[in-house]
Amino acid sequence: MEEGSRLPWMRYGSAVSLFVVILALWFRSPQDVELDYRLDSVLSSLLRAERKVGMNNARPRVAIGFGGCADLIVDGVSFLNKMGILNSDQPMHHDYLENAEQLAQSFAYFFAPGAAAERFMLNETLFSELVECARDLPGNRWAVGGNAPVMAGRMATEGCDVLLGGSFSTDFTDVLSRHITVAGKDIEEPDIHLILEYSSSTSWGHYTSQRANRYIIHSDDHNPYLDSLEEFAKKLRDFRPDLIVVGGLQMMDNFPFLPVGYIHPCTG
Hints:
The chain has helices at residues 2-26, 30-52, 76-83, 100-111, 124-136, 147-157, 170-173, 229-239; strands at residues 61-65, 69-75, 96-97, 117-121, 141-145, 161-165, 180-183, 192-198, 203-204, 207-208, 213-218, 243-246. By secondary structure, it is α/β, with parallel strands linked by helices.
């Protein structure tokens, strides 16, 4: 009896499912229909443009600059707690950082509204301590960083030969695609950027983040100076790129460029 009671439902299950799908399509929001129409128009236009371009079997050649780094990504609040950096009662904007107090003030300034920020740490000793703390923090992770290497990796995957302008260590270049040629200086250690991530509604003392974001700290003295520019320009002529992409210029923002020969007391 129980077996028989199931048969009607099993018999008409497909018809019921189809009916539900038709109802969902019938009562779709007009905004959704309009969005689908616009997306279809954009995709159709892109396909028409692609057909107009003469394609051959050669791999497209793309030159991308400048710079790159190794991203060390950690949970921001856990990291600051481990470092013993308490939340500041004086959120403050700093163009660059020289000590732990300024780090706390700057982080608080951007953390509460959930705004992205990147700041240069002028104090190399403190930055080394921050990196060592981040290395030991459970859940940390490493990633190839910088707009240029990330774009280069994607374009190489999509079938391009890429000329990448940047100064990298051997460990960094070893993880790049064989279709990427580096134009720049060899450095002993990779430039590390600390990525302090946090989620929406995360608490740090009496602050609560309004949205998820990240706060970046670095002590990078290669990328802000675009020190791979000359080598990149030399190789560019022979490389004969189909496309040139320039990125990484944001590293120059808020960087404390100093007069030639000047030594800041915090850099020792």
